Protein backbone atom coordinates (compact mmCIF):
# COMPACT_ATOMS: atom_id res chain seq x y z
CA UNK A 1 0.00 0.00 0.00
CA UNK A 2 2.84 2.37 0.85
CA UNK A 3 4.45 1.91 -2.57
CA UNK A 4 1.27 2.97 -4.39
CA UNK A 5 1.04 6.07 -2.20
CA UNK A 6 4.64 7.01 -3.06
CA UNK A 7 3.95 6.67 -6.77
CA UNK A 8 0.85 8.84 -6.58
CA UNK A 9 2.75 11.52 -4.67
CA UNK A 10 5.54 11.41 -7.24
CA UNK A 11 2.97 11.74 -9.99
CA UNK A 12 1.49 14.84 -8.35
CA UNK A 13 4.92 16.50 -8.15
CA UNK A 14 5.61 15.69 -11.80
CA UNK A 15 2.21 17.17 -12.66
CA UNK A 16 3.22 20.40 -10.86
CA UNK A 17 6.40 20.62 -12.93
CA UNK A 18 4.60 19.86 -16.20
CA UNK A 19 1.81 22.36 -15.45
CA UNK A 20 4.40 25.04 -14.64
CA UNK A 21 6.12 24.41 -17.98
CA UNK A 22 2.81 24.44 -19.85
CA UNK A 23 1.75 27.70 -18.18
CA UNK A 24 5.14 29.18 -18.96
CA UNK A 25 4.99 28.13 -22.59
CA UNK A 26 1.41 29.30 -23.12
CA UNK A 27 1.52 32.60 -21.21
CA UNK A 28 5.12 33.58 -21.95
CA UNK A 29 5.52 31.99 -25.36
CA UNK A 30 2.38 32.11 -27.42
CA UNK A 31 0.20 34.67 -25.59
CA UNK A 32 2.91 37.05 -24.37
CA UNK A 33 1.68 39.96 -26.49
CA UNK A 34 -1.89 39.72 -25.18
CA UNK A 35 -0.98 40.61 -21.58
CA UNK A 36 0.49 43.68 -20.00
CA UNK A 37 4.11 43.59 -18.93
CA UNK A 38 3.30 44.20 -15.28
CA UNK A 39 0.92 41.21 -15.26
CA UNK A 40 3.55 39.01 -16.92
CA UNK A 41 6.20 39.97 -14.39
CA UNK A 42 4.01 39.42 -11.34
CA UNK A 43 2.27 36.31 -12.71
CA UNK A 44 5.66 34.68 -13.33
CA UNK A 45 5.59 33.72 -9.66
CA UNK A 46 2.83 31.17 -10.31
CA UNK A 47 4.80 28.83 -12.60
CA UNK A 48 7.86 29.43 -10.39
CA UNK A 49 5.90 28.29 -7.31
CA UNK A 50 4.58 25.21 -9.11
CA UNK A 51 8.05 24.30 -10.38
CA UNK A 52 9.66 24.77 -6.95
CA UNK A 53 6.94 22.68 -5.32
CA UNK A 54 7.42 19.87 -7.83
CA UNK A 55 11.22 19.94 -7.62
CA UNK A 56 11.21 20.03 -3.83
CA UNK A 57 8.66 17.23 -3.62
CA UNK A 58 10.65 14.98 -5.95
CA UNK A 59 13.93 15.65 -4.14
CA UNK A 60 12.52 15.33 -0.61
CA UNK A 61 12.88 11.52 -0.29
CA UNK A 62 16.52 11.78 -1.29
CA UNK A 63 17.48 14.63 1.05
CA UNK A 64 15.10 14.31 4.00
CA UNK A 65 16.86 14.39 7.38
CA UNK A 66 17.41 11.12 9.21
CA UNK A 67 18.32 12.49 12.64
CA UNK A 68 18.72 15.65 14.67
CA UNK A 69 22.33 16.27 13.63
CA UNK A 70 21.55 16.52 9.91
CA UNK A 71 18.89 19.22 10.08
CA UNK A 72 21.43 21.97 9.49
CA UNK A 73 22.86 20.33 6.38
CA UNK A 74 19.32 19.61 5.17
CA UNK A 75 18.33 23.25 5.62
CA UNK A 76 21.45 24.35 3.74
CA UNK A 77 20.73 21.99 0.84
CA UNK A 78 17.11 23.15 0.57
CA UNK A 79 18.17 26.79 0.84
CA UNK A 80 20.80 26.30 -1.86
CA UNK A 81 18.28 24.60 -4.15
CA UNK A 82 15.75 27.38 -3.65
CA UNK A 83 18.27 30.20 -4.14
CA UNK A 84 19.66 28.65 -7.34
CA UNK A 85 16.16 28.26 -8.82
CA UNK A 86 15.20 31.75 -7.63
CA UNK A 87 18.29 33.30 -9.24
CA UNK A 88 17.53 31.49 -12.50
CA UNK A 89 14.02 32.91 -12.32
CA UNK A 90 15.12 36.47 -11.53
CA UNK A 91 18.30 36.72 -13.60
CA UNK A 92 17.39 34.58 -16.60
CA UNK A 93 13.61 34.39 -17.07
CA UNK A 94 12.52 37.86 -15.94
CA UNK A 95 15.14 39.67 -18.09
CA UNK A 96 13.77 37.79 -21.08
CA UNK A 97 10.36 39.32 -20.31
CA UNK A 98 11.67 42.78 -19.59
CA UNK A 99 15.30 43.68 -20.35
CA UNK A 100 15.08 46.82 -18.18
CA UNK A 101 13.33 45.24 -15.21
CA UNK A 102 13.18 48.34 -12.98
CA UNK A 103 11.39 50.28 -15.69
CA UNK A 104 8.87 47.44 -16.09
CA UNK A 105 7.86 47.67 -12.45
CA UNK A 106 7.39 51.44 -12.64
CA UNK A 107 4.86 51.13 -15.48
UniProtKB/TrEMBL annotation:
The organism's taxonomic lineage, starting at the top: Bacteria, Pseudomonadati, Bacteroidota, Flavobacteriia, Flavobacteriales
Transmembrane region(s): 12-31, 37-59, 71-94
Keywords, sorted A to Z: Membrane, Transmembrane, Transmembrane helix
Protein's name according to its UniProt entry: Uncharacterized protein
Tree of life domain: Bacteria
Organism, scientific name: Flagellimonas yonaguniensis
